Amino acid sequence: MDSGLPSLFNFSSNESVQRSDKRLYWLRILSLISAVFCVPIVSATCTAPSGVAPPPGVWDAHMNEIVNMGTLQRADFQIGDQVIYRIRKRGDEGTRDPMLERLRSIAPALKELQAYFATPPDRAVLLVESELDLLGDTLAFTQCAKKDEKHDLSNYVDEGEDLDVKLPEGLCLIVVRPHTIVGERKTRFALAHEWMHSMQNGAYRPAMRELWWVEGAAEWAAHKVVPGATERDNKIEQFFERQPECSLTQHSYDAQPFFFWGDQQFDTSWGISLGMGGREYLKEPRRAAEILPPERWLDWAIAQAEQTITMPDGRPLPFQAEVESLELGETCGAKIEGPPLSVQLREVTFPEGSASPLTIAPGDAQLAYKDSEDNWIRVTETVELEPSSSPVLFATIMPSGDDLNVNLTLDNTNGLTCGCHIGRWTEVATADPEAEDTFDGALEAIEMYRAMVPPEQLADLEKAKRMIEAADTKDRFRFRGAAKQIFEMDGGTVTFDNDGPIVTLARGGSFIIEDPHMMSDGKTTVDYNTYTHSGLWKIEDGILKIDLQKFTYEGTAEGPLSDGPQEISGSNKHSSYVGGGGDWVVSCQETGIKLVPAYEGERGPGRDAVLRPH
Question: Residue 42 CB: number of other CB atoms within 10 A?
């Protein structure tokens, strides 16, 4: 066990080979370990990068450290059929042995685990402590010889010495690195994790390369042996962070929540017995899917959604699976995708006011959704789900070697149910350099017709010219009329309630422009608290067509002879409103939408309508 993946030391050595060949073999193994150290603890990467090989001689250094320790001793206890050997530094011999005492304290719990193996573990174990600082933050590692071979350690001593003669074939070497471990509980956890490897090696050696089982099950076993451990919580967090992108078979230490769940659902023997299938059943999702019936894979997904999985000692998990939000309003559909054997959780939100049922097409996936009464409804074929005003929780998984691909669709045949343009928006003012001048050309026209105006009307013409020159006649909005420019040219003021008109393109096809404002000429004030233009919209051949049909206003008017504010109201089915209707091309943007005139001749600077969520 380590901060990366040091239990690659679990791999047994090659067939009988020369010492130099074994050194090359272990250099390759250590290269893999170095690659693992390149992966951040919470990385979502499913495969490790190549990494950089450690300096040559790391394996040799560890073996030479061991053979130069003190005398080989057999412990005064064993765990089941597993005999325990011990080597310590010469200076420590004859003194209290804290590491062996820790192993003795967890021996009863380890013996309980042994009972769940189909073949009782019987590998002898040599326990040592290393002071070498050659493997980064690695806490401990285990390496086992083949069952009928001597351990590679015997190649580092002369023939006939204790380490050559007294150690049995099939030995497992457990090396603990105390200088990397802080705390009593963490040390016991590391011992339990590595002891699990010695048992796995003895019973299911062909499966020892499939790290999601090897390391995930070892972490689970260590939690059973050492209750209350929190030192490996980061691995549980890592599992849920990587799960959306990674198949179960691509995990390692972090796969432990799967074994927590299996222990709860079945029993302790279930997680251990997965090794019986060897690489054939554990390496690829296609075969690993056969571990469980399809509906049981869905149980695993629902358990994550319900957050019912606990630590082996009954504590809640320190981290839980994240639920992604899925909005159907923009496209009238969505996909739930992911790798095989990967739980995907989605909170699906229907468009506001949607009347269309949701068609769920799970394909070969296992899928369930939670109804309004908190019941999980399992879906095995294409079905329809009635619209919900509240988000609906989905849990799904693909129990095969294929990627997950669930289709969710809403009926949008009339084009009025979904679209990025649907919503309530505020129009953003066009920047001054691009805004068109409402009275562009008016001054030229005045000069052109000056000679045609009777002398007694020239003063009025000059007044009109001065008014235009002094006024702000920029047209900054497509959904606001020219009342402000016209009224203020004559000395009045117009004050709008909002920075821009409020434009609503409602689901179902209704359209409203709200633009309340106040107008005053210094004597009379009109306050329009309701000032709306309404109509219908539709999508036709990809074009948003807006048909303005009605103008409605309510407010108060107050003047010198009105005896206070007087209520006013009215409507007009034949609005004289300038702008706001017409045909548009919708451009969906992250910050809102932009409406571009549908016809080429109407386009240009200052002609687009930019809308942001209100």
Answer: 13
CA 592, CA 587: separation in Å to the nearest integer?
Answer: 9
CA–CA separation, 125 vs 85, rounded Å? Answer: 6
Structure token pair of residue 214 = 């090897």
For residue 378, the tally of other CB atoms under 10 A from its CB is 13
List C-alpha distances in Å: 595 to 520, 521, 541, 608: 32, 34, 15, 6
For helices 58-67 and 19-37, what crossing angle results, to 10°?
110
What one-character DSSP code corresponds to residue 402? S
Question: What distance in Å separates the CA atoms of residue 84 and residue 106, rounded to the nearest whole number?
Answer: 14
Report how far residue 111's alpha carbon sits from residue 116's, in angstroms, rounded to the nearest whole number: 9
Burial class (CB in 10 A: 0-12, 13-18, 19+), 497: middle
- 260: confidence class by pLDDT, cuts 50, 70, 90: very high
pLDDT in tens, 157-194: 988 888 888 899 999 999 999 999 999 999 999 999 99
Exposure b/e, 12-37, CB count within 10 A at least 16 = b: bbeeeeeeeebbebbbebbbbbbbbb
Please state, in angstroms and as integers, the Cα–Cα distance from residue 86 to each residue in 77, 83, 159, following that order. 11, 10, 20
CA 274 – CA 261 distance, rounded (Å): 14
Question: What pTM was computed for the model?
Answer: 0.76
Residue pLDDT, tens place only, 465-514: 666 565 667 788 999 887 777 777 777 899 999 999 999 998 888 999 99
Tokens of 607: 């002609």
Specify whether the CB–CB gap between 491 and 522 falls below 8 A.
Answer: yes
